[in-house]
Amino acid sequence: MKWSEISIHTTQEAIEPVANILHEAGASGVVIEDPEVLGRDLTQNNDFGELYQLNPEDYPKEGVIVKGYLPMNSFLGETVEEIKTELNNLLLHNINLGLGTVSLAEVYEEDWAHAWKKYYKPSQITDRVTISPSWEDYSPLSDDEIVIELDPGMAFGTGTHPTTVLCIQAIEKILQPGDEVIDVGCGSGVLSIAAAKLGAKKGLALDLDDVAVKVTRDNVKVNGVSDIIEVKQNNLLDHIDQQANLVVANILAEVILRFVPDAYRVVQPGGHFITSGIIAHKQEEVKKAMISQGFNIVETLHINEWVAFIAKKE
Fold it and tell me: Could you tell me where the DSSP H helices lie in 152-200?
């Protein structure tokens, strides 16, 4: 079967909203070609030992290319125009699209169904946590290494994007054995699984996207933490009454701003709110909203242009 590969040349900031637009348009799979991982991999190899190698020729010289795969049918033209319209709408939210160019190519299903996996290899993202694709045969390098097996499926989230790395680093710093955790916008479930393997007693993973809910359930099962993590379809923290020691959210800054009051409501006194997905030029806006709500910013973490906050409810 023939498919149309739609490629959007954009920025790191726009990766998640662009990928979401492609999913909403019916894309069967999304590939992200981000040259930032090449530099990060070299750093990681110096710290942790070489886990994998990536080919620089597979990546753009600048910016990021997000690719989606659409069926070749009579509606393709309208679908592409709708995608372009949604991309333009991102500008209304002050999201930098960079070049914002859109191109199309024809591919056969067998060419792309597994091709994206060459971009996704085992990655040791903290001193203790390694994320490995579920199809890779990876053996821990030490007795205390925590391995998260992940298959993102059609849910956005391989666990290796800087915003996810920042969240897991923050969870590793803050989480205490026996804590209860709520993961808002769980994607592929990596943050919930990390929390469970780092000692959480109970976790609630939430996502509005039913595909993300299914993928998270599958990954939770593969990692043997089904008895700890409940997965539920839900819009942010709407109608969530239970409280938790820790709330984590790796979502766009615009979305974080919408549910800061709910995050404050569900975090137990003395508990923490970890949030990432924030591009550097929007960090002050998010920080101000969190402080105004009553959170105390304990620590700010950075990877390149991405920011994560660790906040405490005193």
Answer: 162-174, 190-197
Amino acid at 54: L
Q: What does the block give as tokens for 16? A: 């998640």
Check if the beta carbon of residue 275 is closer than 8 Å to that of residue 248: yes
**Beta-bridge mates of residue 303:** 306
Distance CA 17, CA 282 (A): 15
Please give the CATH topology (third level) of the domain spanning 2-119: Alpha-Beta Plaits (3.30.70)
- At 39 the three-state DSSP class reads helix
Question: What is the pTM assigned to this prediction?
Answer: 0.71
Residue 93 token pair: 């939210």
Phi, psi (rounded to 5 degrees) for 135 = -90, -5
- Looking at residue 226, its amino acid is S
47-85 tens-digit pLDDT = 433 344 555 555 667 888 888 888 777 778 888 888 998
For residues 140 and 55, is the Cβ–Cβ distance under 8 A?
A: no
The CATH homologous superfamily for domain 123-313 is Vaccinia Virus protein VP39 (3.40.50.150)
**Run of H or E including 109:** helix 109-112
